[in-house]
Give the backbone structure.
Amino acid sequence: MTADAPTNSSTGSPTDSPLLRAAHRLATDLLAPNAADVDTGTVPRSHLDALGQAGLLGLAAPVADGGSAAPPRLQRRIAEVLAGADAATWFVGAQHHGPVRLLADSDAPARAELLPRLARGELLAGTAFAHLRRWPDRPVEAERVAGGWRFSGVAPWYTGWGLNDVFSLGGATAAGEVVFGIVPARVQEGLAASDPLRLAAMTATRTVRLRFDGLLVPDSHVVARVPVDRWLHTDRRNTVMPNPAAFGLVATAVIRLREVADQTGLAPAGRAADRFSERLERLRERTDRLFDEVPPDDQHDVRLAVRAQVGTLLVDATTALVVAGGGRSMTLTDPAQRLAREAAFLLVQAQTRPAREEQLRYWADGPGGEPDDDRAERPGATSTGAGDVGGTP
């Protein structure tokens, strides 16, 4: 599949894309109807295969390698659609794009072997790297040996175990270098996995702890080596931004709220939905501007402020849906409780110390808990120190 999304020349926004239409079809026909069953069970591999068959696992891969090299804004819109329908399936699938990007930027022999198959969705990838944010601690250590690198330590969060075929593993050396290798996603010499963790939300994603005891990754499968300071700098560009999935959950909550209003005559539910929808559009526009128009190393305080506003909207909209539904919202078949739990998950997913502080500051200092919509635009907004702090999980 090729990068076939027409764009508006002034905004770069995809106006019509076969990939986006495919995401909507999957969301409507497969993901949303089965989301409650997935939530109480496990993400089926067949759901992930469907993403691959629709071209949605090759978004980050070059066209020459079988991907679509989709524009970033289109990738964000697709994430919204998938997460709003079934956040667990979206989250397992989202792990795939990081390893694809690593391979696309590498000249390691593993690139030719794996990248085309990953781009076509024939293989599914996961990733283990969040522990790198704990530097100078090294939860996973990388050591150079003859013919490759050995990894030792514990990755506390790994998503998709038993669903992924391969994964990218990041470790840090004593000298301050980050090393990434591509590893088969199975128990083997030097690699063990815990049982899937029981989580308040997203247990269906088969998230485990991985333990490494001198796992050997041959040079042929080492796809990146970068100074840890540079890696933290790049990672910080991502963690200061809102997760597009949050917009998808809010959009679904708005639709559900309007349905409740129509079915029950609860007029305030409809008015709340209208207000959330307005906030959603405003914050999405700000997020697009920060992603697309502002250099990635600029305005980190503003980015964190917008992330906090999105987090607050996410909590507001999903909580309102629980309230509107009353007691039935507590049944596991009702989407309200699932969306509220998924919202809580997104609040802490990819959460660094600056992001945590800004979200809490927003609740602590905002007027009556209401969004201060001008804060993200005000010169001289309170500094979070995000430009100087790498952050921790």
Summary: Residues 267-292 form the longest helix (26 residues).
